[in-house]
Write a structure and sequence with these properties.
By secondary structure, the protein is an all-alpha fold. The protein contains 3 helices and no strands.
Amino acid sequence: MSQQIDYQILLQEVIKTAREAAQQSSETDSPFERGLKAAYYDILDVAKTQAEIMEVPLTEIGLDGVEIADYITSKAA
């Protein structure tokens, strides 16, 4: 049971870190910045998709109300 809690905390921290990094990413359109935004998008999209498939509430992993596409198209709020 405690191992599951450890995994949940790990996932929450990965998501939190990816969201914060995406929010702080530059709005420049350099190839490097586009690549970073795509990486943040991929991390968050996989987490959200898998949570939905496994019926894990998005509130439990910090993705409730998050529009992941915002991370790749512009700076997320």
